[in-house]
## 1
Amino acid sequence: MKKADSPASPEYLRVAELIRGRIRDGTWVPGQRIPAAPALAEELGSDRSACERAVRVVAMQGLLTTKQGSGAYVSRILHKIRRDGTSRYQKAKREEAGADGPARGAFEAELRRMGLIPRNMPSVRRAVPPLEVAGLLGVDAESESVVVRDRRMYAAPADAAPEDLGTPVQIATTYIPLEIAGGTVLEHYDTGPGGMISRLAEMGHLQTRIEETIEDREPTPDEAKFLMLDQRNRVFEITHLARTTEGKVVEVTVHVLPTSMWQLSYGWDIDGN
């Protein structure tokens, strides 16, 4: 019996593959604005609705970024950033030496290994913690009992000019008990080589156990705007807890990362039985 022909792929998938092809072969280069939907439809022999849907698909795959009212651009980072949850917090990794000296933490070290320049727009404040965070840290949920370090994080190509922030790739919000961080370098924008983890260790709060919970979700409007995502894109929300040998939680960090830009990696030993 003759096998029935498979149905044709939807038009938007055909267009998406054509868009990917133009990016792969260098017709459209990183940072370039691609044609708007009407022009794209004419160029690719399609229709506007299929092109608009195809652009959303390719953006969700990380090859395009969208800017409200400005159109779609070829991503400047075409390979995923690898976040190694197993080793990134080890002292040797987070203080890894580079051309500009020791890294200021795990994020900076990760991007350097990829040949990218990390940029960081931090803010630091004292605040009333969210109820869940207060419970984890064992601090007062009704007073300014934590130091909050908010970071908007970018990755720029190696040849980027100093004023070029690059591509927004992560939002990270860290909560540290005020009794630990208050009046210390942890309230400064630059916490030095190895970042806040190294400073906590020097202050007698060595982290010996890390716990992370990962959720896949849609971005909030504010997250989507900063990360240049369509609301239908997805993000990883990683809730990171750091404990001392005594089991005390000295840091809670919430990382928000576009799933299209990041690869999460973990590894551990087993007993072999």
Note: Residues 1-6 have pLDDT under 50 and may be disordered.
## 2
Amino acid sequence: MQAWQVHQTGEPAEAMRLQEVDRPTPGAGQVLLKVRAANINFPDALMCRGQYQVRPPLPFTPGVEICGETEDGRRVIANPALPHGGFAEYAIADAAALLPAPDALDDAEAAALHIGYQTGWFGLHRRARLEAGETLLVHAAAGGVGSAAVQLGKAAGATVIGVVGGADKAAVARELGCDVVIDRRAEDVIGAVKEATGGRGADVIYDPVGGEAFTQSTKVVAFEGRIVVVGFASGSIPSPALNHALVKNYAILGLHWGLYNTKNPKLVLHCHERLTELAARGAIKPLVSERVPLSEAGAAVQRVADGVTTGRIAVVPALQNGAAA
């Protein structure tokens, strides 16, 4: 079968190589899945660079989120068991962790429903306890992680402010349903948020960016507000001033979604059931901006690494070069 492999860490476009390899053999408690679609996540780029908390042995195939097909024809969502990741024709996954792919979503959309939306649901509902009528601020609102949080916030009855970088991404954020869109390249984020909220600030702030975005968050968080830290796409990990959190009376909440798979897996299943219901009634729908054939996966991961994409890019092995999705 064909699979992308990383033999030496580096930038994805250089580190990933498409090769003919043996089909992986499932171990105890695992199943072989035909990959119908693999969603590209920022951690895939970090793994290629050797900068992610999970460092699979070399060589490995990246791709942490797929919609796959079991040998008996069931369509499922899975996190492949590394080093046999999803940017391949076949992957393996733990049988106990398979989730049914929602009928309301196609393969690429289903592949994109899992990590980003689970992270959003746990961040907004489990950690921040977002309530209807509150104001939610989402950094990188047009990206894969941010777009999921925008849709989940709207579904929860919140007023959503989206922060993006550039006019194209601003247009995407509006289409996603943001009530207010702030282009950080053209506007003062702090001033714009205060104006949009009458000086009160945002009740919940969802931050997959870190760096300057976190600093901005601390200046626009409302009384008893909650800042949910879900990642550091900027490459800069902030050092919060806890005296500031004390004086302004806000909370800083960390979220590592992957821990729930081992600490409380029943909650992951409960979340998936809620997400499936939301998808069935059209309240959420993953924004898949591109569907690319397997041969273009390396270049696509690099674009995600460079931060120039909107929504999600899905790798669809059944597509041929130049074919329409």
Note: DSSP finds twelve helices and 15 strands in the chain.
## 3
Amino acid sequence: MFMEPKEPTPALQALRTALAEAVSRWKPRVQEMAHQIHAHKEVSFEEVRSAEAVAALLAEGGFEVERGTGGLPTAFTATAGSGDLTVALCVEYDALPDIGHACGHNLIAGASVGAALALQPFVDELGITLKAIGTPAEEHGGGKALLLERGAFDGVSLALMVHPVQDGVTYNPAGTSAQAVGRYRATFTGQAAHAAAAPHQGVNAADAAVLSQVAVGLLRQQIPGDHRIAMYVAEAGHVTNIIPERAVVEFECRAFTLKEYEALLERVRRCFEGAALATGTTLAIEDTEPLYEPLIQDDALAAHWTEAMVVFGKDISPSAGISGGSTDMGNISQVIPSLHPWLSIPGADVPIHSHSFAALADSPAAYAVMSEAATALAWTVAAAATNPTERARLVKAAYLRQTLTQEGTS
């Protein structure tokens, strides 16, 4: 639902000005941190230097930092304030294997940290408990899903972050989403044999891997246009003179609703089962990561963000939606009012998850919009905290969720 931007009250406008000035003061340090993260290129659960760079800067800014949140060594929680409205700014910093920060997580970290540092002096005035939560392993591993399960988001009233995308995507997040995704490993087991002396005595697991790829490829003709299937063969033999007795296929399924996702997964499973039946191999399928759930944007938070984007002269036309992609922020949004807007990098006419986008994520243009996003996040928090009706809604939602959680574990 698109909500027209509203003029801020004089008090809120004064607070906006103060927050923008604070973002500006911290901008050099935050940009330096984001550049360091970009250079580190640390993949999921290995973000040791990146997590420490973020945590150290937040500690310098007056936050109490707890490292190793939820038993994850590269997670942390930085806290300031003690108000009844608890705000979580999610910080991502993991890179993709080989191509580095081709999803711009260094910019995600910079925007959240910039907002947190700006808000810190105002936590008592706003009556908030402010948490910057370091969430590792977004690309693979589901760090937020694990942290949610382990209590890191207990009591949180609202959660926010941004995500970089290509140029030309609207800054209005209302109505946008992200797909559910589940990732799996299919293992075919056959029988080894000499490929020349006795091939007829073997059961070729690599053939099963090939058939599964063909079956899934044909299935793609008959699935909705917003569904996605991706796969690759991780193992299918090692030498030419042995019939492969083991083949491993890694695959994932995506859809915008859980119901559609489950239906798609079942059809893909049948492709693998058919390949096993045709080749005489046995099949085992196991999940390799937590399920990423669909993303829900909170309309009120989206409206505050959009108001800020008007100030920066950004495109806030209603969105046609995002065609693909997933985030473990979806898991957070299923239970906590959340905001996950898209940060369009000027001049970025290349796809994300490419070497070219990784280079653009460390450009002056990217850091400029990162600072604007930090300001907009801070303004969004301030607007929600100072609106009595909205504040009551968010506090009540957190209370009810916490009560249900406690009743479920008692």
Note: Residues 154 and 402 are 7 Å apart (CA to CA).
## 4
Amino acid sequence: MSSSKPVIVYGASGYTGRLVCEYLRELNVPFIAAGRDRKRVQEVLDKVPGIESADYEVVEVEHSVAALTKLFKGASVVCNMVGPFIKYGPEVVEACLAAGCHYMDTTGEQDWMIEAQEKWGAKFAAKGLLLSPCIAQMYTTGEIAANIALETPGLDTLDVLVLWKGFPTYASTQTIFTILKAKWFYLEQNHYVQWPITSTFEVNVPGQHLNTLALPWGGTSHPIWFKNDPRVANVKVAGGVFAREVMEGVVAMTKMVETDILPLPFAEQEVALAKMADSVQADMPPRENPRLNTTIDSVHASGPLGRAHVVIHGNCNYKQTGLLQAWAAYSLLQQPPRRAGFASACQAFGHRELLGVLRSFGLVMKPILTVHD
């Protein structure tokens, strides 16, 4: 089919996909909610507040390059919510390239980002299309904070902390466990350096008297986005949820993965990791409550003779993700991205613009900036 709707949300039956549709409705953007099970997608969309006023269609589609290309033709932007992306992303990217669509997803998988950049970055750039994996709260809001810090000249090192209250969705949990079989990197003097899989950190929580436990969280996207940024040479990221008992459980399972699962053949690793993820989170979590589901993105930026610290307090990390995806699509319908090809949200749309969107919807406070020079 040739789409009469300019935006396609692929994987709309998931928690985050539903939120993307919700914000597309608020931005008055027509969209197609697509997935492999039409009935399931429709059931989820029926629960979106105000969906009766949205201009949308529900479409069932096979997960293949041919079927997705047919669906994407006539559209402009695809928001891909179907992860783990290293497993399911290539078909969607290939279909976007064939159909002439911008591509965005919410990944936290460094191996997928590196693969996307190497295989398709130049091809998307040649067509003036955006290839932007990893537009999501856990990465983009911290990237906004980092870019605010880098407005102070002479800083070349980023120390990033991302914390949130709540529990990962089913899809996020599957992705977390998929990451465990990949290599994770931080950036040191513009080179990727591998994290040990069992790395942990005791971190200070900005604005509180306590500390908490954090992890490299798969390395995150920040080392990749800033690798070719002439301002930055070093990037390390720590992240996780506030609840220490949850983080301790993740640490214990990570050690189990290292000793019991990684020695297995690759195919058996995937099965074992999926079962482990299902044991942690098999259902859709409740809708976020802004009084409970708070977020903190903190960036210490330093250089030989300067320092800056930026903290962004927010709420509802999945709502932030849904809004960032929807607004990015809304922007692309009106003007080209600032950078085509492989690019982050801030590189494509501007960090101050993205901050303004999050603030206008009541999802983050004004950043707290402290500069020492």
Note: The first strand starts at residue 7 and ends at 10.
